[in-house]
Amino acid sequence: MDAFEIRGGWPLQGEMRMYGAKNAALPILAASVMAEQECLIQGVPDLEDVRVMIEILVALGARVMREGDAVTVFPQTIRSTNVPTYLMRRMRSSIFLMGPLLARFGEVQLSRPGGCVIGQRPIDYHLRGIRALGARIEERNGYVRATANRLFGTRVTLDFPSVGATENLMMAAVLADGETVIDNAAREPEIVDLADFLRGCGAHIRGAGEGTLVVQGVHHLHGTTHQVIPDRIVAGTMLIAAAATGGSLTLTGVRPEHLGSLLGKLQEVGIPVARERDIIRIEGLRPFRGVNLRTEPYPGFPTDLQAPFMTLQTLAQGTSIIHENVFEARYKHVDELRRMGADITVDMRTAIIRGVAGLSSAVVEATDLRGGAALVVAALAAVGDSRVEGLQHIDRGYQELDVYLRDLGADVRRVVLSPDAV
Ligand code: EPZ
Q1: Which atom of ligand 1 is nearest to the CA of 126?
Q2: C-alpha 368: how far from its chain's center?
Q3: Of residues 70, 116, 356, 415, which has the active-site annotation?
């Protein structure tokens, strides 16, 4: 088990060029299964979840080449529609293969993705939508098998603007007969990026990024070249880390319009943020105020930045209230922040944070991806030597985080803990 050893209390200073978004690259890699020629996908981050998705494509029979951040998928040789269970277990997002495999081959079998620490993570919206498109679904012993000779366009209304369900249904619909309308669709930038990729392959999609998505089915998808959008969640995490350490950071290669809600909240707490074209600049000023926050589907405040932003709020002047509206159990980082001196009380989906003068260094453990990022931000802000364990969670979504942080002046190093380390 790896850990970061961090000597905190120093402001981050410098510039960072953003890399591609994990949550755009994953569905796009899955969607490449439907193309009849190779797809060159640029800006693919080198992350554990992406490596697992590539392993799945290879296990299905695709040939995949990677050169730097460019991944070429040759889907012509795919023969299997059975997603290996051991790979499903390693990454929930394998569920994104359901729509594409069903659309291209008329069948797919995969194991139900497990829940995780942030919630049950059900897939009922995915299954209901796929069934509405004409698939038969059998569930047995934790496996889901969907079959359909043809998929037929239909109208689906999502109970909640689920990112994954919107992506799965959009992918299934692009090869269905006729028109599919998805109401109450998710509007995240990653949905728009997936639609852009699919249109590059010849799909007919309107309304991506709006509440209603309209897909006209086509018979074939050809290959394409696509540049993945920058990662707005990594960008937001780095801005929060600069604010929490009183540093100054210039992010380049970002899309400020994807971070409107975070930039608005940083202005509200009293931390000025400058933005232009593909650049965001932040000067971490002290003191800054506590604010109230509700996580919402895009364009609201992203649930994936709730934990890092909570760390910032532990150092604010005054009290903040955070309401986590998207996942039912996304406060696993609170106990660890308390061990560092934070004053937080949680009641169901609401957290009340009373600002403290400073956090104390400690040994803490990450139990999920974004909660782990919140602990790294806390360790950077706390004076003294901290250790953040559980990097297997953080490595899923942050590429070489220690390297990027060292480039910004942080005193951080990755250590491998012996199995019996206490
Ligand atoms: C995507 O997860 C992201 N993952 C998550 O990022 C992100 O937090 C989430 O969207 C919300 O923005 C990827 O894109 C790979 P949802 P997803 O379906 O699609 C409930 C990260 O840290 N729901 O929008 O799984 C669900 O339980 C990860 O990078 C159902 O009830 O999220 C949740 O409460 C974490 N039934 C809510 O909807 C369903 O069939 C939103 O989930 C599907 C979802």
Answers
A1: 40
A2: 12
A3: 116
379-407 average pLDDT score: 97
Ligand 1, residue 167: give the atom nearest the CA: 19
For domain 22-227, the CATH architecture is Alpha-beta prism (3.65)
Q: Is the CB–ligand 1 distance for residue 298 below 6 Å? A: no
401-412: per-residue pLDDT in tens? 999 999 999 999
Whole-angstrom Cα distance, residue 358 to residue 340? 9
Q: Where are the alpha helices (DSSP H) in 32-123?
A: 48-60, 85-90, 98-105
DSSP 150: S
CATH code for residues 2-19+230-421: 3.65.10.10
Q: What number is the average pLDDT over the span 267-288?
A: 95
Tokens at 412, concatenated: 């951080």
What's the gap in Å between 227 CA and the centre of ligand 1? 23
Q: What are the pLDDT digits (tens) for 169-183?
A: 999 999 999 999 999
Whether the CB of 163 sits within 6 Å of ligand 1: yes
How long a stretch of residues is the chain?
422
Please state, as a whole number, how many other Cβ atoms lie within 10 Å of the Cβ of residue 338. 16
Give span(s): CATH 3.65.10.10, the chain. Answer: 2-19+230-421, 22-227
- Tell me which of 326, 330, 332 to substitute to probe ligand 1's pocket, judged by most ligand atoms within 8 Å of the beta carbon: 326
What would the pLDDT profile of 66-117 be if each residue is shown by its tens digit? 999 999 999 999 999 999 999 988 888 889 999 999 999 999 999 988 667 8
Query: Is 39 designated active site?
Result: no
Q: With residue 124 as reference, give the H or E element that holds it.
A: helix 124-132
Nearest to residue 363, comparing CAs of 385, 380, 346? 385
